[in-house]
Amino acid sequence: MTSPQSQSYLIVGAGVFGVSTAYELIRKYPHASVTIVDRDAWDADTRVAASWDWNKVVRADYDDIIYCKLALEAQDIFENDPLYQPFFHKTGIFWICRSDYASAVVDNYKKLGRKAELSAVPVSEARKLYGGLFEDADYTGGVQDVLVNKTSGWANAGDALRAVTKRSIELGVKYVVADIDSLQFEEGGRCTGVKTTRGNSLTASHVVLCTGAFTAKLLEQAAQASGKPDISAGDRIIAGGIATGMTTLDEKSYERFAKMPVGVQGYNVATGPFIGSLPPTRDRELKWWGQKIFKNTQNILGRQISAPPNEPDYAQWKVSGPLKQDIAHANNVFYGKNGANWKMEKHRICWDAFTSSSDFIISPHAAAQGLYVATCGSFHGYKFFPVLGKYITQMLEGTLEPELQAKWGWDAKRPAAETNPDFPRFEMNDLLDSKARL
Ligand SMILES: Cc1cc2nc3c(=O)[nH]c(=O)nc-3n(C[C@H](O)[C@H](O)[C@H](O)COP(=O)(O)OP(=O)(O)OC[C@H]3O[C@@H](n4cnc5c(N)ncnc54)[C@H](O)[C@@H]3O)c2cc1C
């Protein structure tokens, strides 16, 4: 068997899954050939990647103990590694829970032996915290308590992604800008590379798809072009979009909100997904994500598949009135009258790949040797940036522990989508401006 040092790795997609993998591989195997290919330059002013963003929540507040443990491992790197540390802000989190989520998280920290300033706080007490910033939030719908974790926070997402990509390139990773149209297979069925929309080929002994929301579409195109139906993702991977919005705080509001924690409104499957609000950036921009998660089902070579819009920028800046309204709703359930006069200035639609369990897929593709899939951040993948590459490399080497293989496998057993509050439940087409739909 050839040594990993002489292997070649072609990683499609330069979001956190792809970049973390490239960074891990080039440090572990400095003589291996590691290439990332993405349709956007790593230092472009705007990108379609979900990982490219002003900010993302970094927390280990999970009721699932596996993600809790992994997120703690990642957060320690965010806090201590000089490469990540400048981008992490330990502001704390204020999570309004409509289930026993808070106590489950506190329990997980205990089980993992992790000491941290976190507790489940009764609503009456929580309203007064942080100078009453959340006094006017929505606490209806069976709120049990508020999870307050002083050790959670957020990261300047796009800046951290850029920094780790830059470091990887300095260490020897090759970065190619190209749009990938399909995959290439040799006669025995092994995947040998990719084909760009301009007709060029890139080859490697390992092809790793870290293509986020585009994955199902790419696999469908590859399945049809190669006549190999099993390459298709089937119903494993769904592209979903969510609107985000920002306001620039005036001097007075900034003074009040500058030290705020991340805010989360937790709901349940009957009501909808959780909503979040992130503390102001250095430009005084406070952000929300909305509650409407939607598919964009298209006819792709005869199959109905959800994928981002066809425009090169995924039409991410074209945000309809109903989606802007969703952000206004998010503002209201956190800040009520305090935020009633804020002007919403920036809106974006962010696309990610989802599974029905919200678990990642980090796995060999079952239908072709040499082909690997590492994606499906399912709306919570960013925070694992510092450790994803370690686990994806273990998967490539066949050393991923059985528990994680079972959780992230291509053919893992997954629940019905209806049981997951965060699974896309709208169609983008039904959320357009009514005029545009005519
Ligand atoms: C609104 C929103 C808020 C979120 N908030 C948080 C949060 O607070 N905390 C958190 O931990 N997570 C959060 N997430 C989830 C997180 O952002 C994603 O799970 C994670 O960034 C996904 O990373 P990725 O590498 O899989 O995909 P991406 O970051 O989307 O990267 C995929 C890359 O593949 C490239 N690509 C795809 N197809 C092709 C092709 N055919 N040819 C060339 N290039 C291609 C794209 O250009 C892109 O750069 C959020 C997601 C959304 C949508």
TrEMBL record:
An MF annotation (GO) of this entry: saccharopine oxidase activity
**Species, as recorded:** Aaosphaeria arxii CBS 175.79
InterPro entries tied to this protein? FAD-dep_OxRdtase, FAD/NAD-bd_sf, MTOX
Domain FAD dependent oxidoreductase residues, every copy: 9-395
The protein depicted here goes by the name FAD dependent oxidoreductase
Origin: domain of life: Eukaryota
Tell me any Pfam family this protein matches. Answer: DAO
Family of this protein: Belongs to the MSOX/MTOX family.
> Has keyword Flavoprotein?
yes
Instruction: Kindly state which keywords UniProt assigns to this record, in alphabetical order.
Output: FAD, Flavoprotein, Oxidoreductase
The cofactors it requires, by name, are:
FAD
Q: Does the keyword Flavoprotein apply?
A: yes
